[in-house]
Each structure stands twice: as structure tokens, then as C-alpha cells.
User: Fold DUF3526 domain-containing protein from Algoriphagus oliviformis.
Amino acid sequence: MKTRSPILLLAAQVWKNILFRPGSKALILVMNVLLIGFMIVGFLDLNEHQRQVHGFGEDVRENWENSPDKHPHRMAHYGYLVFREKFPLSYFDFGMDSYLGNVIFLEAHKQNTANFSEANLSNGLLRFGEISAGMILQILVPLLIFFWGYDLITKDRENGTLKILFAQGVQGLELIWGRVAGLFLASLSLVGLPLVLGLGLLFFQPENELLGQSLIQYLVLALAYLGYFLILALVSVLVSAKSQSSKSSLTTLIGFWLLFTLVIPKVSQVLGQSFFPNPSKIEFDSAVEEEIIRQGDSHNPNDPHYAALKDSLLRAYQVDSVQKLPFNYSGFVMREGERLSTETYLSHQKKLQETFLDQQQVIRMAAWLDPFLAIKLASMGLSGTDDAMYQSFKDQSESFRYELAQTMNNLQIDLISNRVKSSSDPSARLTQDHWKSMPDFHQQFLPLGEVLSNEIGSLLILALWLVAGVALSVFYSHRIKVV
Assistant:
């Protein structure tokens, strides 16, 4: 008759002991209810957000197309509103979504910020709703794993069971991995059902164009969390193996939890901002405006830059006044001004984004010391709620804004006479058919390859933590003290 593996026997023992601890069943039930509840709340919030975004977007488009006949430059200043959509997996981990703007007003000559973030508009009840399933998995589940695992070996040493296990031929590595396996299985009782139901929610979204990408990202995300819990189980058992008593083991693990979830994340954030300080919004806008003023004011006919531009055009077309040019000179100046101001803004924006990336790099470096940071970064990235997805939306909005402004300028250049003295002149108005020809804004999410590329570092860190845990378990398996 074949004897069962000691690892399986030890794992089953750990699972049974945890399950029958006072309060464990209640904790498992509460954790499952919390995770499933917050996933459903996040899912409903996501669908409501998408419904509102599409409804507002249709209203904006209808108002744009039905705008009365007018001068195209006035239409450029009339502007356009674009709304940020959420990625289908954002119900799992809210990440930065609650603190980022959702609406941008696009107009000529000016880049506006995204406004109306949920954090600024929410009341206390909605702020409570910002707790996500990802947040619970990152912070609360580890605390339970540490609570269940702190005495898995110290208790055997204290009550003399460890001597009996070794006397029966159990090896140190079998002891460690039996305890780890049992603790990991116990953690699955907390997250297994919610993770399966979370996957099912993807099939109930009204828009499933991104279903394939979302499924792949969700599976990678679920595997990352399972790896995270296995790391925590390893940490718990190894600390228990090294500690002299259950009390010291629990104290050490609570210290690790505070270090991982509070100290290292906050210190890394402060260090990133200290090493790579970013300008305030006022400083940024002032720097952009000063450079644009130095380049020239397209609304000032006596500006040196545009005066020189006018002279060069008159010489090129061999005419003595702008009224004799074969195109609308005012529209040409507006197009040139839009080009210069946009180039200036983008150059400053690029430097600002590089500063933010440098700050994030400090946090990513700190993740080598902290698996919590690694799983947090991976979770936000794979859920589509990180800065990369938000920056993609801003870049697309700016491209659309520039295209809209230049389209209106080109309409003025091509269709409005040079002899028109004012934009209020009836002959300077274009029909609304020209507004309808302008394409609508359609946000594109980052493709799967780019998302995985962005988070490969965080996933690699988790993998290396696992490898380090396995190596330490082999190392300490020969050094477990019986007394």
C-alpha cells in the first residue's frame, strides 16, 4: 500500500487546523462576501460610468454637428468635450481612476487639464466605495495569512510535536513545504471563489470588443495574486521556523506587514518626489506661456515673428498686401500659431512626463524590496487603472484637439475670402455641413502587448521573490531547531 506524501499530510493538517480555529469560518465567509461585493459594486459603477460617458459623448457630438453657421475659428473656440472611458477590468482594482479627471475641454490655442475626478465630486458614501477587491487582496488577505501562519512551526516546537515529526522521518524541507502548501490552500478559501466570479463578470459587460484582451490580462492578474499569496505563505512559515516563540513570530510578521504596506510605499513615494521634483501647475503653465510669448503672438499683427512671416509670404507670392494672397492669411497665421504653441506645450509636457516616470522608477526600484509594491503596480497596470493608461487618454485627447483646431484653420484658409474684414461678416460663415465632416473622438486603450511590457518588471519581481523563498526554504530546512 502506497504511503501518502508527508507534504500532503502536513498540508491537510494545516488546512484542517486553520478551518477549525475559532472564528476562521466566519473570517473566510466575510472575506468572500467583501471581495464579491466590492467586485459587483465596481462592476456596476463601471457600467454606469460607461453609460454616462457614451450618453454625454453623443450629446456633445449632436450639439457640435447642429451648431449654426459661423466662422470656423469661432467654431474652434466653441470647442469639444471628450470623456475618459474605463478599461473593462477597472472594476477589479480602482488604482488611480478615482483621483484622475474624466473630462477635458478641447479648444484652440489652449491645452486644458482633465477635470471632474470622482474623488473631488464624491460624498462620504462614494468614497467608501473606492475600496476595491484589489485593495483587499493586497492589504487584508496578507494580514490573515500572517495571522494563520505565524505559529505553524513555533507551536510544534513549543508543544514538543516537532521532535515527534522528525523522529517519524519527516525532513525539514517537507515540514516547511507542507506548512506552506496548507497555508496557501487556506488562502485560496479566501480568494478562490471571488477570483472565479470576477472572471465571469467580464462576460456580462455590454461592450465586449476588448473581451479577449481583458481575459488574458485577468488570467495574468489572477496568477500574479496567487504568486503573491504563495510568497506571503513562504514568509510566514520561514519566520515561524526562525523564531524562538510564537509571540516573536507574530510580532515579526506584523512588522513585515507594516513595512510592506505602509513604510516602504510611503518612503519610496517621498524619495521619488524629493529626487525628481515636478513643477506645480502654475509653474508649468507659466513656463509654457513665457516660451509661447517669446515665439510670437498669432493674435498680434505687429508681432515680430508674424510680421516677418507676412513679409516672406508677400515676397514668395510677389504681392504687396495680404488681401492679394490666394488664401486666407488670417487662417494661415492661426494655423502657424497653433503649430508653434502645440510644439511648445508638448515639449514641456514631455519633460514633465519624464519627471513622473523618474518618480515612478524610484517606486519600481523599491518594489524589489517589497512584494506589496510589485503586486500593486502589476494590479493597476493589468486592470487598466495606472498612469500609463491615463497618459494614453491625454495624448489621444491632445492629438484630437490639434486636429480639430487645424481642421478649422484649414477651412478658414481654403474657404474664406481674404477680403473679409471680420469673423462676424455673413460671408465669413461656413455651413454646419463642415462641422459634421469632422470625425468624432474615440478613445483607444493600450494594446495587450504594451500593457504586458509595462508590467513585466513587476511580474519578474514577484517571480524572483518566489525563487528567493524557495531557496531560503531549502537553506533553513537543515537549520530548524527542535527546541
Remarks:
- Confidence is low (pLDDT under 50) at residues 124-129.
- The first helix runs from residue 6 to 19.
- The radius of gyration is 30 Å.
